[in-house]
Specification:
By secondary structure, the chain is α+β, with helices and mostly antiparallel strands. It has 23 helices and 27 strands. The strands form 5 sheets. An 8-stranded mixed beta barrel has the order 19-20-22-23-24-25-26-27, surrounded by 5 helices. A 6-stranded antiparallel beta sheet has the order 8-7-6-11-10-9. Keywords: Membrane, Transmembrane, Transmembrane helix.
Length: about 800
Amino acid sequence: MSTLVQGVGPTPTLLPTPIQPTTSLPALARRISLTWVSLTLASAALIVIWAATWQRTASEQRLIESNALAQQRSVAIILSENLTQVVDRGRLLALSADDWFEGRRSTTVARVNLQLATDQVFLRAALYNPALALQFQSAPAPVDARLEAAVREAALRLKAAAEPSLEIVAAPPGATESWSLPLLYAVMDRHAQVRGYLLLHMDLGYLLQLYRDVELGHTGSIKLLAPDHTLLAEVRAEGLSLPVQPQRIQGLDGTLATEGHRTIDIDGRGDVQLLAFRRAERTPFWVAVGRSADEILAGHERFNLRVWATLGLLSAVLLAAASLLLRSLRRQQALIDALRRSDQEKQSLILQLEDEKSRALALASLDHLTGLNNRRMFNQLAGSHLAAARRSPKHYALLYLDLDRFKLINDSLGHHVGDLLLQAVGQRLRTHVRSGDILGRMGGDEFALLVTGVDQAADVGQIAAKLVTELSQPYVDLAGHDLHVTPSVGIAFFPRDGHDITVLCRSADTAMYQSKRAGRGRYTFYDAALNPAGPKRYALERQLPRAIQDGELVLHFQPKVQLSDMRIVGMEALVRWQHPEFGLVFPGDFIPIAEQASLIGALGDWVMQACCAQQAAWRAAGLAPVPLAFNVSPQQLRDPSLPSRLGKLLRQHGLSATDIEIEITESCLVEPVEVAVKALSELERMGVHIALDDFGSGFSSLGQIRQLPIHKLKIDRSFVNDLRSNSDVGVIVTSIITLAHNLSMRVVAEGVELMDQLVYLKTAACDEVQGYFLSRPVAAEDAAKLMQHTHLRPP
């Protein structure tokens, strides 16, 4: 806490005053005889020498073992990552093998042969149907009954598995090529049902040959193990070897973490080895790298013998001298012991008193969650600094920070995850502020920083930009979640924007809300012109319920164009507010108000009813309407009556389920998702198509949504915007499109504003696009004219 107030302003009265210990024992010790001093110093020197020597030898031994383990762990990590990549490449082949059972056999053969030609780790491949009848093999090979029996056993284990993926085929020696390890993959359909099996022969010799030259001494070895710790292959100094008979590493029995180390006797003959092990992620393989403990510590043991011999001789001399003085010290020892006990009791009482005082200070001045100054302490410290700033020529500024969409994280993932996020934000702030600045948590997800004594006002902007960048970095593994949040920052200068801390906080808070309105994840300097926005927001918040009831809301429509023939294949409904005083108000100005005022459900119901009515009106006018899409909020999905209400509207307007389309955002899929998934599944059974909007901007991934009833992915406009400036974004977009197609989903790209973007997306096999380049959102009558032309050509 002292680092936050160092060198600036008066010291706050809440800081503790240290309590001085008693000095009775040193005063009495000075009065003892020279004999006592000599014996004490000799004994202390002997103890220090022995303790230091023992500590040094022990630390050296730990260091040697730690260095050896670090080397072994590095090799294990590299090999396990290599194995993971190899197995994942096999999984990719298994995923593409589903095309065989969909009738696209030539595609499967081409992909398998191409992978085998470019990937030397796989020797050959064979594809079986669920009855284990051979469908295809990459190269002719004689049928071996022993191998076929082992394949059947592996298939049975895959069928019994809760999530079938991969099994090692325990083929007997001679059943396969030398150094070949058969791997059996389950070929799954989109409903997680086994459609067949892909057998890949992995070349262990090629894989392990890469690690033959790793320096592990004469006794070191690299072992590749099966899930039951049976040795599959081994690399030693002499070369590569395969076990003649099944050999199980007994010392690894029992429950293991995914990585670690043990000291075990592998062969039972007293050859103790220091073994580092690691399980390759998403594979059944274990990697163990070992080396003899005797070899590792051999040089250290010889050195220790010389050190202890020398120390023993020195100790004998000192003990002989001490024994001559022991008789004269006996009477004085009792007195010294009594004084020491008394002094220890006093020290204990003093420490207890200081602890109690520190705890009381912390409760009064620190935030219990983040350890930062609380609001009261921040105001006191900032007030004292601002009082001194009146006489300083330098600049002082208050930064008010608020985390964007923090309420969504709290509501979706729970308050315990929100608390962990606040602690992580507090730690980053503590790391990236100067020692002379004042930092505090003002409550909720709001933080304040008083920047003191900067030479130029522009430096404050640089500090704010740095904080926005640092706080926007991902927060990894918070109770198993990886989160990405951004801060909105408001800046107010002293004394220009406020002569005391209260007014300064109000000005900075106003600027912070302007940052949120401007798009979040940025900083804004306070300007008196910011205040007029307050009455408008208040008026919108007060009038929104009436606007929903009185029909002041209108729909605009933006077409979706199929890239193969530029035909209009859908429309997206976008809500607007035709305000009598402010004119046309866009969603960014009133949707946040609806969320905060718990009106998002009523607003969503209005949009749903208005879309059904508009689709029915187009049909009555003789048009052949395309599916009309509208957004459904997470709050609506949590309502179990949503499917029945939508079905009633469809029947009321004479529509079918294919006439409309539901769009949800990734926030709907954040845990817990049971109610949302139930509602989506019921909508799918009705025949309603479901699209995932803004994919890539939230928490979900293709792996998480593959089991959900999602028919279409909409790539977030941020990826489309970066296609021209960042080649990595293009690779990501292409990968999303390819994987989505493999999962039988259509892909829509949002925010297309340039011809270059349109050309790239068509080349990448994107299905549909929408954006200003083709058409802005238009009113209902203009949308009807677009549908009459059926096709929409680029300008």
